[in-house]
Prior knowledge:
The protein is α/β, with parallel strands linked by helices and 274 residues long. It has a domain at 121-264: N-(1-d-carboxylethyl)-l-norvaline Dehydrogenase, domain 2 (Orthogonal Bundle), CATH 1.10.1040.10. It has helices at residues 6-11, 22-33, 57-64, 79-84, 97-107, 120-143, 147-167, 178-189, 194-203, 208-214, 220-234, 240-249, 255-264; strands spanning 16-18, 42-44, 70-74, 88-93, 112-117. Strands 1-2-3-4-5 form a five-stranded mixed β-sheet, with helices on both faces. Helix 6 crosses helix 11. The longest helix is centred in the middle third of the chain and has 24 residues, at 120-143. The radius of gyration is 19 Å and the shape is globular.
Amino acid sequence: MATADIAEVVSQSDVVVMGIPSQSFRSVLQTVKEHIRPWVPVISLTKGLEMTTHKRMTEIINEILPGHPAGVLTGPNLAREVMAGYAAASVLAMEDPVITQALQRVFHSGLFRVYTNKDVIGCELGGVLKNVIAIATGMGDGLGAGENTRSALISRGLAEITQLGVAMGAQAQTFAGLAGIGDLVATCTSEKSRNRHVGFHLGQGKTIREIIDDMHMVAEGVKSAPVVMQLANEHKVDMPIAREVYQVIQGESNAARAYRGLLRADIGSEFDDC
């Protein structure tokens, strides 16, 4: 049953699932706080970072609702396909394995497979950072750059995601799973992807304002890009793809110039230990 009465829903819930855009997550959670029963788990579906604090959504949950187990459900889950009943896989990340396994059974179904992971930081960051890379691949598609270019961007984008994620406390292997490469491929290649959509139209010559005004949904990568670059600078991680996306979104560059910048970027060993 659908309802607009948040008090009615939350006060009776054994699990609260937050599918709220990142910049409204805190304010809605404050409302939830007024009605939620003690110790009820709170699961985030949001793939973004709070712009003012740079916090992940589970960090906001822990701040506002201490004592409530916080987790994230993430992965290659394009909303329209999930709603249409197509098969999909996701990952539920929480610190407490007992609670995680109990909630795994809640979310898991025949066509929606849910795996577990203890790496909350990595799973959340994978969902955030892939949005920025998806804008880059969309720009390439809009420019007609070709499939070789798309594959290179996905691969090197994954390297950037992994480097920043590990620097922030994530486990490298997480980015080889559903929350990393799985989500990245889906978001970078699907025409249903909102972030790829933004990039595609940037590649076609539209401004970011024109694109956002025409959209009816949130593309988290647009909001996350400035925060991602601040985190990259803070952790001294070089992210040339994310940096070019950020400059285009800020109006400091355009898609064609961004691709020329990537071609001029320094090259070296593919892996740090080679």
